[in-house]
Inverse folding.
């Protein structure tokens, strides 16, 4: 005789299965912000590609530090635009250039973390000089949480 088939719901933890469970309400409460963070990460990935492309395209002309600073502003501008039309659609107000300047100002702490990690790595790790994409990636990860939080609270509220 075969074992009775039980549904997945019947085997779930009571903390999740109950409609009024604390875990379920916490997930429901934070789902919109989690989706924003996911979209912010997707936009950040596009920004990472732009950042890397500009670094590789200008490093022989500007040097790695100059290329890294230019690429940050190019990528940040693209990220602001994509976050405005997708991640935080309908949030934030005011003139476009004011919002763009608020975005850059709010992300100044992220800039310090991002470019600080980038510069530290290209100054101390020969592998990052040969493959600047590694330093760009480390910088992007370093600034992610701060940039999301400040963008959400100060720019797109």
């Amino acid at each position: 005789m075969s074992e009775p088939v039980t549904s997945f719901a019947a085997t779930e933890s009571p903390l999740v299965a109950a409609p009024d469970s604390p875990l379920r309400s916490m997930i429901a409460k934070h789902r919109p912000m989690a989706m924003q963070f996911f979209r912010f990460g997707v936009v950040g990935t596009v920004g990472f590609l732009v950042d890397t492309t500009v670094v590789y395209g200008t490093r022989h002309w500007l040097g790695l530090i100059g290329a890294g600073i230019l690429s940050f502003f190019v990528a940040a501008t693209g990220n602001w635009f994509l976050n405005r039309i997708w991640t935080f659609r309908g949030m934030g107000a005011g003139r476009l250039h004011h919002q763009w300047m608020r975005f850059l100002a709010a992300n100044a702490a992220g800039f310090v973390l991002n470019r600080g990690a980038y510069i530290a790595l290209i100054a101390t790790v020969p592998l990052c000089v040969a493959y600047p994409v590694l330093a760009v990636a480390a910088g992007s990860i370093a600034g992610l949480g701060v940039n999301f939080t400040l963008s959400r609270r100060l720019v797109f509220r």
Residues 35-155 form one domain.
